[in-house]
Write a structure and sequence with these properties.
Helix content of chain A: 25-40%
Order of helices and strands of chain B: HHEHEHEHEHEEHEHEHHHHEHHEEH
Structural class of chain A: mainly alpha
Number of helices of chain B: 15
Strand content of chain B: 5-15%
Strand order of the largest sheet of chain A: 1-2
Radius of gyration of chain A: 23 Å
Number of strands of chain A: 2
Helix content of chain B: 25-40%
Oligomer: heterodimer
């Protein structure tokens, strides 16, 4: 069952903030959905191989060559904060831990 | 006001527009102006569009007219007004995916499918409304308000390609691009009375389609008829350097589309006519199948024994892939950014504010099924069931050419009816998800009405046999 603690844990992993109310609501809803999908457990799948790619394509590659394909100008325009043509964010490595 | 009394070019298809343009019955600019006028008139009531690209459309139309006036030949799609679902990138135009988190995102490039349409001379009228990040079966999760069903504005148009289906159904465009991850083209097509095609996985490049679930997403079309669907597919399909899952297979979807259906063998999977679905919908679909018998086809009952596990499989795989695909929306490189005390705080604030309820729910569900300790139980199990579902189709296509099923267990439901119970909403996809899990092509065609609301007949084909299902759909329409 998905209780409020688990919802909080999942939210943390997913980088989401959830209110107390939302924890209860999501807990209930996620539990109901999981109850439904658990029907897969009633099938014996021991000898079945998992499918991760449906068309069976393997090792599709292209040459690793640089090219001017996307507009740098248009791409940078989508960035919330730029400094000297670079994406600016708050510090990634912090002094204190 | 009865809709379409006022719309001069309502009911026009790709071919009739092409004829009209080359015979100079109307100019492209007249045509496009009229579509733009109609869109404006209907926008408040239907809310099919997020962005209307009036300037771009008129510029494109002018170019087409110049070409015609110079006596040059134009291609079949040239000058045809279309709309693009807002989870596709159209260069220089907002691509919101129906979400607040991308409500300021101007696409820096064209999606491959979009580029191919642009090169073919298609006129882009605008970007259509959709469920947020294509997560939904009603259009109601869009951050830009729900789209209404043009046939009954108190009902949903279906989703997630809600705006695309409503726009085609309301004659606001001739055709529209959509995406289908669990039924998001076919179900709204059936609710709005239009044709919805989901090709084989890998048939159309997904480059420039904002990803929801990469192994389940398909690019396809909403059109007025099967012939138009074939025309659009011919243009957008084929290998692409930018999508390594796009298959290098060129097929001809048009040459045999008019061939008759005598000798076709159809299968009716018994698992698709179940208790709990609207019996009247089942009745209408069975009558439609009778029509195909009358056209000379043979119809037998078949079985896809793992159908009962499809929805569960889908709602494990899709949220898992969605959680991974939506991790990129963190306020760093594009879209919304809400500053925080530190980097992590910025991620959390941005995502919490920018994502809607359904998106958060699916991200958390996906996170759960991929969590260490649970992944084997859920994700791997679902992948194994995926193998069995695929094998069901492989087996059945040894016996028949195509399968015939209802597209949806009901006709369009009322706004708000299923919104408060996610699981009830998910059940709307019950007949469509298998084709996404297996990757086989499927098309929904209007086949009748219940309570004056459209019912869709779903035709499912074997891998890369879009030509066959288009031929069946076209034959059914003619018959």
């Amino acid at each position: 069952m998905i209780d409020e603690n688990l919802v909080e844990h999942l939210a943390q992993l997913a980088k989401l903030d959830v209110t107390l109310e939302e924890k209860a609501k999501y807990g209930e809803q996620l539990s109901a959905i999981l109850d439904y999908v658990k029907k897969l457990h009633s099938v014996d799948l021991m000898t079945v191989k998992p499918t991760d790619h449906i068309t069976g394509l393997k090792n599709v590659s292209r040459n690793d060559e640089p090219a001017n394909i996307f507009s740098v100008k248009k791409t940078l325009k989508t960035v919330p904060e730029i400094s000297l043509n670079q994406i600016k964010v708050k510090s990634v490595l912090n002094e204190k831990k | 006001m009865r809709k379409n009394n006022n719309m001069r070019f309502a009911e026009l298809t790709i071919n009739s527009i092409h004829q009209g343009l080359i015979n100079k019955e109307f100019t492209c600019q007249e045509l496009v102006s009229e579509y733009l006028r109609w869109i404006k008139l209907r926008q408040n009531d239907i809310n099919a569009f997020i962005t209307v690209t009036e300037e771009m459309a008129m510029q494109q139309a002018q170019k087409v007219d110049e070409k015609i006036n110079a006596g040059k030949e134009i291609g079949i799609l040239e000058g045809v007004p279309a709309a693009i679902k807002d989870n596709f990138l159209v260069e220089d135009i907002l691509a919101s995916a129906g979400s607040k988190i991308l409500s300021n995102y101007i696409a820096p490039y064209d999606a491959t499918a979009v580029k191919r349409l642009r090169t073919a001379g298609v006129i882009f009228l605008g970007k259509t409304n959709c469920d947020e990040f294509a997560m939904g079966s009603s259009g109601e999760t869009s951050a830009f308000g729900a789209t209404k069903n043009p046939l009954d504005e108190e009902r949903v148009p279906g989703g997630s390609s809600s705006g695309s289906a409503a726009a085609v159904g309301d004659n606001q465009c001739v055709f529209a691009l959509g995406s289908d991850t669990g039924g998001s083209i076919r179900q709204p097509a059936s609710f709005c009375g239009v044709v919805g095609l989901k090709p084989t996985y890998g048939r159309v490049s997904r480059h420039g389609l904002i990803a929801l679930a990469s192994s389940l997403d398909h690019v396809g079309s909403l059109t007025k008829n099967a012939l138009d669907a074939a025309q659009v597919l011919q243009t957008i399909s084929g290998a692409d350097d930018f999508d390594s899952t796009a298959v290098d297979q060129q097929d001809d979807f048009l040459s045999h589309i008019d061939d008759d259906l005598r000798g076709f063998k159809f299968g009716i999977p018994k698992e698709y006519f179940i208790k709990g679905m609207d019996e009247r919908v089942a009745e209408v679909v069975l009558q439609a199948i009778d029509k195909l018998r009358y056209l000379g086809a043979k119809v037998i009952e078949v079985s896809l024994p793992h159908t009962q596990y499809s929805l569960a499989t889908y709602y494990i795989l899709q949220p898992a892939e969605a959680a991974a695909n939506l991790a990129r929306y963190d306020g760093v490189k594009y879209g919304l950014r809400i500053e925080g005390e530190n980097l992590e705080d910025m991620y959390i604030k941005t995502r919490s504010y920018g994502f809607g309820d359904e998106v958060k729910r699916r991200i958390m569900l996906g996170t759960y099924v991929l969590t260490a300790g649970y992944a084997d139980d859920f994700y791997k199990t679902a992948q194994k069931m995926r193998t069995l579902i695929k094998q069901d189709f492989d087996q059945v296509f040894k016996k028949v050419d195509c399968l015939l099923t209802p597209t949806s267990p009901s006709v369009a439901f009322k706004l708000g009816e299923k919104f408060s119970n996610p699981l009830t909403m998910y059940l709307a996809d019950i007949f469509t998800v298998s084709a996404n899990i297996a990757g086989v092509p499927a098309i929904s065609v209007p086949c009748g009405r219940v309570d004056n609301l459209p019912v869709g007949l779903q035709i499912i084909g074997n891998y890369f046999e879009e030509a066959k299902i288009l031929q069946v759909a076209h034959g059914f329409e003619k018959g």
